[in-house]
Amino acid sequence: MEGDLIEVRPKNKDELYYNATIVSYQESSGTFTVCYEDNTEESGLFSSSMIVPSQRSSVFEDEFLKVVDGHMVINETFRRARLLSFIGSPGIYQSAILFGDDGFDYETLAFDVDQAIILILPIFLGVANDQITPSILLFGAGAGSIPMALHSKECNMEVVELSDKVLLAAFEHFGVPKEDEKLVFHLEDARHFSKEGKSFDIIIVDVADSKSEVDPQLELPPAAFLEHGFFENVKKLMHERSWVVYNVIAKRDKLLELLDTFPFTSIYILAVDPNYVFMMSNVDIDIDHHDISRWCHDYKHMAYSVLEEVKNSSYYLENEILLGWFTKQDFRTFLANENVLV
């Protein structure tokens, strides 16, 4: 038993199974202590949270990234998944795409943050009150989970990705099509991307950079995507009804700062821990969690977990829990309250 390689759900409840080695068994509690790949240990784990022996398999690995097949629990259902991680960040999975009965299941999103981001599509359509075919610009391809989920909704998408290795992994190991008139990829630096004479309905900033300087207050996005020059480039890609989405992981003080940094009229935040998805527009409109639930009703299968948190937004507000849908003012009030965990 000791020394066996297993897959285990941290805290007995995380959705993703991680590779670990059994360190010891505590007979009195019937629990295990394990050591993960990053050499951290955790105790109190039950056998019901384990796959013994590990069934994880390597698909591809080079000096930059790794692709493995592993397992997740999604909506209380055990699922196989293909995972992408960077060699410089062991144990942190950047993307995951689930397997279905016949190949990849692009319409069931594995990570809460991906679920939150794609909800901008029904929100945009709900605000516009128009069944148009939206145009979407995404900065950061990942393994393709967000592009493929939105692609299934008949959008016109363009994706900008800096790393040729990430794009190659998406094409070769995650089933993302190289050529599709409704899903176009650009290999270039998102900070300098321009599209003369074209605007987009939705612009999504979902970028990470393992090489950027570490900011203890800001994990995502890299600081360059929060500078005036980048905002000006984004504005050139917008029209009067466009929405901009940012995937942010940051500490309390930085989040407060961002509320005043983003140059948009309307700012809403969908908090899914540890990510904060900022949804912003120059459309002056009031949106509450009831609107989100109504507009996103047909997305329950894609965003099952996050929509449940949206539905519980009033409860979270009353109990000072930083989850669910927030207006700019409510979010600021929560952040200013030291009793609220961030």
How does the SSE layout of this entry go?
Blueprint: E1 5-8, E2 18-26, E3 31-36, E4 41-45, E5 50-51, E6 57-61, E7 65-74, E8 77-86, E9 93-99, E10 104-105, H1 112-118, H2 120-128, E11 135-139, H3 145-151, E12 156-161, H4 164-173, E13 183-187, E14 200-205, E15 218-220, H5 228-236, E16 238-250, H6 252-261, E17 266-271, E18 276-281, H7 289-295, H8 304-311, H9 313-318, E19 324-327, H10 328-336
Q: Give the CA-based shape.
A: globular
The sequence of SSEs as H and E is EEEEEEEEEEHHEHEHEEEHEHEEHHHEH
Low-confidence stretches: none
Fraction in beta strands: 25-35%
Description:
The protein is α+β, with helices and mostly antiparallel strands. It folds into two domains: 5-51, SH3 type barrels (Roll), CATH 2.30.30.140; 112-336, Rossmann fold. 24% of the residues lie in helices and 33% in strands. It has ten helices and 19 strands. The protein has helices at residues 112-118, 120-128, 145-151, 164-173, 228-236, 252-261, 289-295, 304-311, 313-318, 328-336; strands spanning 5-8, 18-26, 31-36, 41-45, 50-51, 57-61, 65-74, 77-86, 93-99, 104-105, 135-139, 156-161, 183-187, 200-205, 218-220, 238-250, 266-271, 276-281, 324-327. The strands form three sheets. Strands 11, 12, 13, 14, 15, 16, 17, 18 and 19 form a nine-stranded mixed sheet that branches. A five-stranded antiparallel sheet has the order 4-3-2-1-5, with no helix packed on it. A five-stranded antiparallel sheet has the order 6-7-8-9-10, with helices on one face. Helix 1 (112-118) crosses helix 8. It is globular.
